[in-house]
Design brief:
The protein folds into 3 domains: 213 residues, no CATH class; 189 residues, Rossmann fold (3-Layer(aba) Sandwich), CATH 3.40.50.300; 188 residues, no CATH class. 35% of the residues lie in helices and 22% in strands. The protein is built from 20 helices and 24 strands. The longest helix has 18 residues.
Length: 626
Amino acid sequence: MLVYEGIKSSFIEDVDLNVIADKIYEKYRSYFGRTSMAEINSWKNSMQHMRGVLSDRQIPEDAGIAVEFNIPLTSKRIDFIVSGRDETMRDSVVIVELKQWEECEAVSGKDGIVNTFVGGGKRNVTHPSYQALSYANLIRDFNQTVQDDDINIIPCAFLHNYHLEENDPICSDLYKDYIDQAPMFGHDDVLKLRSFIRKYVKIGDNKDVLYRIENGKLRPSKMLQDTLAKMLQGNEEFTMIDEQKVIFEEAKALAADAVDHQRKKVLVIEGGPGTGKTVVAINLLVELIREGFTSMYVTKNAAPRNVFEQKLKGIYKKNYIDHLFKGSGSFVNTLPNEINCLIVDEAHRLRKKEMLSKGENQIKEIIRSAEFSVFFIDETQKVTAKDIGSIDMIKKYADEYHADYRIGYLTSQFRCNGSDGYLAWLDDVLDIRQTANFDFGDLDIDYEFKVLDDPNALYEAIREKNQTNNKSRVVAGYCWEWEKDSQSDPNVFDIQIPEYHFAKSWNLNNTATWAIDEESIKEIGCIHTCQGLEFDYVGVIIGDDLRYENDQVVTDYTKRADSDKSLDGLKGPAKKGDPAALKDVDRIIRNTYKTLMTRGMKGCYIFCCDKRLNEYFKQRIHEKEA
């Protein structure tokens, strides 16, 4: 969808008459609703600069111009497009990502990320060249007209307020690969940008190429299919076995039937920790793309998206596949059945809507947007007050959209060394539900569970395990503040237990892949950085929100850090004694620790800040008598 379209001559006239922002705004409002005055002013400013760039006789008067092109399958919009034909008569589209930045800082440890002042504060955002390149790749990978007609998509970035200096951070070698593929132009580079556009747009097309792209069908490209297949080959972490393969084949057949017969289908896969939900989900993504279906992997939590994307890409750059990994709030503005298949992992973490989002309900939006949607879910892993994902709610919206609804199950444990017994023991010891598994020592399993009396001993034990293959981490309950001003400073120790002279930092926010980063063993992860992921060994520091009193395990929501938003909306009612709120906060705290304590495939070590709880766990793990 094009918010503004025209040819070069009419665009320049609209800018000169000072009506360009009004025209963009009117069309924008009809599609997306009202926007901010800041965005309207940014249109006025940026369009003036683009008018100056296009004021060149060698750029044809009838070259196509588009502003705010909404990219299908996403909520993203391309700022500016110039279309035409090059000297060989090849159809060409120049994508221009516009920025009003004046300075920025390079961010190491995060692929394609810079830090700059946007939205009223300094934030980590994607590098302009990375952003332009990712948009170009999305169009190349999913627009059938671009593929069939061999339309050349050329990305670049124009930072019209930015005076690029020698050794400028934004030009760091960290971003060289992206800048090479999507050149970047600053305030003083108008002539260079003109020359760049002229290289690809020598002959006008009177918006013809824009029209064809806007009306092109969606289909994954052969290059994307081949690239994904190569990424998965030989990747043992994504090998399916037993019932995982059965579920995979069923889901694949349902997807084909839904798309081929235009009959909306919804599949729910229920499975506990370690049953292989994510393995099936990633294989489905790759296979459905290979079959020619527009497909995406969706999670609420960014941590698993980033980690699996990193593991899958191998030797390829992140921008090859990052548009296939989406947040759960990405489908507010998509059209009904616009996407063939949406694969939703960690569906229990879905919400009504994200902060500032105009959405209504993420489950509803996903089902509406896709011909086939599959939800991988474990309702016992809801860990915040806003988690609404449930089998009943998925069924409700499947019925609302007259979808064929199915449910399947993954039951065999592949985490915790295949131990259903360990999970049942955890449920019993955490008082989530009563089971027959009282003593850990009575379980006939090859799984290592230890209770340590000192957090330093816990950390050192996990650090030693991590030296083998970088697959062990320490995590903690969210009982220590994560101060905003120090989230990238490793010298600020958020988690302090003075009695033991223990001091560590929460996971730093300058990395999106804490779970696999080489140096992150020095940091402590939380539920938000490890849910949906697994390690060989996990060390869990249990805070004062879980204690042992009067011969029972109790929870205390007041010991949660203020910076933790998991209990937002519940603390007030709980403080007033509301029974439903008290039940919810109790469930969330217990679920959180169960989730943390099931991240380890080979072992889990714990330390409890409450000494009585530490002793209680010791009692529950005593070995069998000889």
